[in-house]
Amino acid sequence: MQKEEGLVLRAQQHDQEAFAQLYEAYFDKIYRYVTFKLGNEMEAEDITQQVFLNTLQSISSFKWKGVPFSAWLFRIAHNQVVDYLRKKKRATVPLDESLPASDDNPQQLAEHKLDIERLLSATRRLTEAQREVISLRFTSELPIAEVARVMGKSQGAVKALQHSAIVALRQALAVTEDETR
Predict the structure, then answer these.
(1) Is 66 helix (H, G, I), strand (E, B) or coil?
(2) Boundary-marking domain end, from 69, 96, 123
């Protein structure tokens, strides 16, 4: 945390090396978060770049108030995604199914695609808060404490949301599995 605080302070003083280190430390996590929210890798790259441009422009306004820098960064990412979706006037966006396959086996590719479709169908049945927790915890790999800070909730509330989301996903996946039989 002290190293991060030092980097942020240096970046606030226009130290390009410090900002580059922050960029390297958080780019992948922010990109995964945005990709999960948008479902499109190309759009996620653009939005992620915009997140870091906005961060560079407004880093001087960041103040340490017991909230880690990453929580502030994820809030910027969340706002960018919301703004983007408002402009596109879409409520849901399909997941980009061009994920790399482990091999070229057509049966495995078809099963993988079916699994993605089932997962998408199941996540649509979650509440927005549940989707947000799943995205931050498992896509961006953030610890519960950090998810709580990003979402402005207690750790207990995040744990409860995560639990209810996983239970709901299991139920939804069981329903979609029964429907495909």
Answers:
(1) coil
(2) 96
Tell me which of 47 and 3 has the higher pLDDT: 47
Residue after which a domain boundary falls, among 38, 61, 96: 96
pTM of structure: 0.63
CA distance 33 to 71: 13
DSSP 116-181: HHHHHHHHTTS-HHHHHHHIIIIIS---HHHHHHHHT--HHHHHHHHHHHHHHHHHHHHHHHHHH-
What is the distance between the alpha carbons of residues 14 and 117, in angstroms, rounded to a whole number? 45
Determine the Cα–Cα distance for residues 177 and 169; give it in Å rounded to an integer.
Answer: 12
- The whole-angstrom separation of Cα 4 and Cα 23 is 12
Is residue 79 domain-shared with residue 109, that is, in the same domain? no
Instruction: State pLDDT tens for residues 49-61.
Output: 999 999 999 999 8
Domain interval for residue 48: 1-96
Say which amino acid occupies 8. Answer: V
* Number of separate domains in the chain: 2
Residues 85 and 142 placed together within one structural domain of the fold = no
